[in-house]
């Protein structure tokens, strides 16, 4: 769960990266950083918090040069400390290197342990650093060859951007788990996790990087390389359900249109005898609109979100998360009182948010609350970069739908079927990763790499909760 942005050969590289990151803020709010290359050295600025809080004018002035990459981070591997904030910058015999990463490697532990035995000293606990070590130990005249060699060793999910003294490199893992697109601004190549960043900058979308593609940008020029590809890609379907911004295009799909279709399909699969449809903002907005259009029930904005609070879930501390539901949402009593309400959200993870929202809507006077979820039950953790907690914290891991309905206190509960969900995306059903719903992990975890190790903070918090 991170956002990445990069631009090559543009005199305003750092400023444009800052704006790009601002548009990608929803992908991670813990820390952010930009590294720029000014022709003689790398300049790095990073810190904890939101993009706009870190990058004041004075900070951006310290990022000269025409090549830059920037990152917004939500940790799914490695702890939430500034040492793990990205970009990570190192000096190698091939010159200085800066890297940013969206995704999660699944065999970094075993590589790290092996390298440590051989004398490597790691500066962070982030999986991304492994790629840098592999590159530094395998220097090549062409740094891209060194990267390709490193990428052959790592497994899992990665969309990467690297800054070197000669080029900007973008790479997407052979499964294409996480999105990464190539664009152009004033004739210069730029890269982003999502197209919403290009819209803000007035950049043109050229294309999505192919799974297993490595693109090298030097000034205006672009070269493309290929890692060995897997027969079917494994694009994260949860990007379409929840994670990406609705005004983005991801994996060639308009996210908003996919969500409208999910809502419409949900209305067919899970109809309700009700008066109004109320979205859980913002995650349920488009699915609720789709549900409303399909069912003919009016859409009412019965819950108002305070936008100055981050996503409840995205805060890594359980205490904030619990408090967050109340400080984030408030019901509009006049719209809800006396009504049979269809409440639409994108997913139920632990079940804590939904339970509080259902209670909130009832306390606002709803006659009935029918909860509709625009994805299947989340029963398995994600190993590839979405922050889903371990299985023992996922309510759908050991509760069937009637039990979950009882737990959240709704009058009825229906989820969108997997088949229904996949019919709303334009790609072949097999080309999406659906592991969080099915447990079908296409890239197995490496040795010594348990789920608990992947999410150390949240596991500790689970025992506190
Ligand atoms: P929960 O209380 O754990 O069931 O949280 C469900 C809420 O969290 C829903 O409103 C989702 O939109 C949201 N959500 C689902 N997955 C994630 C995630 N990986 N990160 C942040 N929020 C999420």
Search tags:
465 residues; alpha+beta; 7-stranded antiparallel beta sheet; 6-stranded antiparallel beta sheet; 19 helices; disordered C terminus; binds adenosine monophosphate
Distinct ligand kinds: adenosine monophosphate
Structural class by helix and strand composition: alpha+beta
> How many runs of DSSP E, i.e. beta strands?
23
What is the mean predicted local confidence, pLDDT?
A: 92
Radius of gyration: 22 Å
Helix content: 25-40%
- Summarize the main sheet: 7 strands, antiparallel
Put simply, the count of helices is 19
Q: How are the strands of the largest sheet arranged?
A: 3-2-4-1-10-9-11
Question: What would you call the shape?
Answer: globular
**Contiguous runs where pLDDT drops below 50 for at least 5 residues:** 451-465
Distance between the termini: 23 Å
Query: Beta-strand percentage?
Result: 15-25%
Please give a structural write-up.
The chain is of the alpha+beta class. Helix content is 32%, strand content 24%. The protein has 19 helices and 23 strands. A 7-stranded antiparallel β-sheet has the order 3-2-4-1-10-9-11. The radius of gyration is 22 Å and the shape is globular. The two termini are 23 Å apart. The C terminus is likely disordered. Adenosine monophosphate binds next to α13.
